Amino acid sequence: MLLDNGRIYCRGYNNGGIFGARMNPLIISDNILFTFSKIYDELFKGEKIVDFEASSNSLIFRTETDKIFYTGMFVKYQPTPFPLNKKAKKIFATESSVGVVAEDGKIYYLNEKLIDDSDFVCKDKRLFICEDDNLNSEIIDIGGSYHLRYALVK
Amino acid sequence: MLSKVIKNTFATGHLLTWGQTTYGWGRPNNGHPWTPGTVANFNDIESVSTGQYHLGFVTKDHSVYTVGLSDNGRLGQGNYSQSGTSALPGKISFGDSASITSLSCGSRHTLALSSAGNVYSWGHPNTLGVIGVAKNDIPILIPPESFQNQKVVRIQAARDFSVALTEQNKLYVWGYGLSRIPKWEQQSLTPVISSEVEQLVHKRHAKIKKFFAIG
């Protein structure tokens, strides 16, 4: 959960590294957090988190200076900069995939799980651009959980 | 302040779905399952939620539709006995003409939030937040007293449990899936304030802006 102190706190099963807490003191397991733990904040100290999205195995958040970080997908166990040099209009998370809708209207995402029945594990760490014609309209909302994805478009 | 975090875009549009195709997702026989396809006949959708085997959406006039697997009454269309699939979206009736603003689909149940801050539930009997319900395949109002008559501003249906945040920043939890959360201190089939969350926010003199419950 995101508190108004600008920090995300998580507990429970840390599926795929979704909690981004590996580097925190006293964290000894990647599997379970028995008590609430703050997401590791070394890369954005002094900045508040203003929004986040989460789904099965994946989490993405935005700071007050519009920096975007992600964690999870069985490849990242602490917040990692989202590899895009464009301003994001929207951030989103689906099962084992995270992404942004950028100012240019395009969808940029990590892990092909967004549009393919591929592995939960993000093996290919490239940033993908969605080229589906159906999704080239103005995106109002995009997301999904489990085995289902959706987009609400104008 | 809390009103800023409620998921309600107010912009409306049409819905594209894709993914595992077993349950149709409102666009049966409409192309490859992993290619986004349009759910026909709806151009004024305001908000969407996806569950494990079903999805739901709210239109501009606050009508609520669900589609997918009907088992356990999760679609809320009064078809509990019909184990199977609804391939096209079906409208849900709210007996007291509640104005629904958002939905949350879980694994085997669904929640709806009204503009008045009331919560409705349907689906698996142990997820409803109300005990002893005769019909669990239609929306049931969780008594506002369960939330100490506080207006609920955000809901989340997870795998067999639910979470709701009130305007007074109290986080309520219920459902039998809570037992699967490691060392969760509370088990309740009706809403109870999470004392663990209370301690967290009290210790940090903070308020909850947004949360997810994922199971």
What does the model show?
The complex is a heterodimer of chains A (154) and B (215). Chain A has 154 residues and is an all-beta fold. In chain A, 0% of the residues lie in helices and 46% in strands. Chain A has a single domain (9-153), classed as 7 Propeller (Methylamine Dehydrogenase, Chain H), CATH 2.130.10. In chain A, the strands form 4 sheets. Chain A has a 4-stranded antiparallel β-sheet with strand order 4-5-6-7, with no helix packed on it. In chain A, a hairpin with a 3-residue loop joins strand 6 (68-72) and strand 7 (76-81). Chain A is globular and about 45 Å long. Chain B has one helix at 195-203; strands at residues 14-19, 37-38, 45-50, 54-59, 64-69, 85-91, 100-105, 109-114, 119-123, 140-141, 152-157, 162-166, 171-175, 188-193, 208-210. Mean pLDDT of chain B is 88; it is low at 1-9. At the A-B interface, strand 1, strand 2, strand 3, strand 4 and strand 12 of A face strand 1, strand 2, strand 3, helix 1 and strand 15 of B. Strand 1 of chain A pairs antiparallel with strand 15 (208-210) of chain B.
Written as H for each helix and E for each strand, in order along the chain, the element string of chain A is: EEEEEEEEEEEEE
Cα-atom radius of gyration of chain B: 17 Å
What is the mean predicted local confidence, pLDDT of chain A? 91
Looking at the structure, what is the overall shape of chain A?
globular
Tally of DSSP β-strands of chain B: 15
Structural class computed from helices and strand pairing of chain B: mainly beta
Coarse structural class of chain A: mainly beta
Strand content of chain B: 35-45%
- The parts of chain A where pLDDT drops under 50 for at least 5 residues are none
Radius of gyration of chain A: 15 Å
